[in-house]
Fold this sequence. Notes:
The protein is mostly helical and 357 residues long. The protein contains 21 helices and no strands. Helix content is 68%, strand content 0%. Helix 10 (155-163) packs across helix 11 and helix 18 crosses helix 21.
Amino acid sequence: MYTEVDVFVSNFTLIDPEIYQLWIEGCSSSEAVSTLHKRSAEKQTGATVELIASDVLDHYRTFALLERLLTVPSKLSEQMIFQIDEPTKQMLIEKYYDLDDAVIRELLGRKLSSRHRKDLDEVAERSGAPLRCCRRQFDNVRRVFKTVEEMPGNVVANIRNTFLISEPLARKYGAVVFIACMRFETGKRKLQYLSFNDFFHCAQAIMGSWTYSCTGPEYYDTEMDREFLLELRELRLLLDKEKEHKHLVCMRLRPKLLDKSYQELELNFRLYTRALVGLACNLHRGRELRSLFIDLLERCIEPLRLGCWPKTDLAQFLCAYEQCALQMDVLREADLKSVWERYMRVVSQCLLTMYHI
């Protein structure tokens, strides 16, 4: 007589986050073994190097198989080969698509083509990240860009829904995609002092105020609002009222600014206002738009640095400069108040972000 036995066979996949992180960082298996062996010795776990090597090699083989699914994250949830719980799946996806700010800063402004993938040695050297790590991030950025660049709607939502990553990480990718779509100049030597975080905040400001955002279900927030850029040309009217504008700004800031800053304002107001208004009047041209950051630096920030403006005084000046213009009849009569507010909202944030003393 035979006894009936219920048998359940499981291939539940165990993932060690520590080993996965080393793989993500671009460590080879031997480098990972060496790192883990040192950590084991410090913690006095008693694990032999042979045991650690066996575990690492097993994990690395699994990661190589998983990587094909991670390139299309929805497949990771649909597949039945690897039995992985949901929190672990999310961890795998999030870490795989994680961005190193130093690496992404070096990738900004570079063409995302397969030909340029071969030239990542310089990126690795300048960022200090292993070449494997740079290649993973380059491939991820290129994949995300090609997937969402033609999608209508909010680019961050599109990235989240397609690649199943967190909101903060999707916002980073959104900024990278936007900068690539706009072909902003970010690689000039003068701009090297700016971090990816600086460009991220500037891109967020531009996407929020200068694009076709929130205009309907078919809008693209990776495209500039062309009508708005054309309307900016009309702001040259402010130059005809320079004396009135200067008087209002100085009256407001006299009791607030340091004496040195106030003297700089009185002496150089014409220089500052012509830079700010002149920049607005030319943004409808593609070349001028692409050189936005270098123009902000050369025409606005460098003169402000020469005046040794404290950042707090600069913030007060930009606020007063915007608000005093809104009080003037010239903007109201030309129906340009909303255009001026949209323009200054972005320019003020970009200047304050880029202004490093």
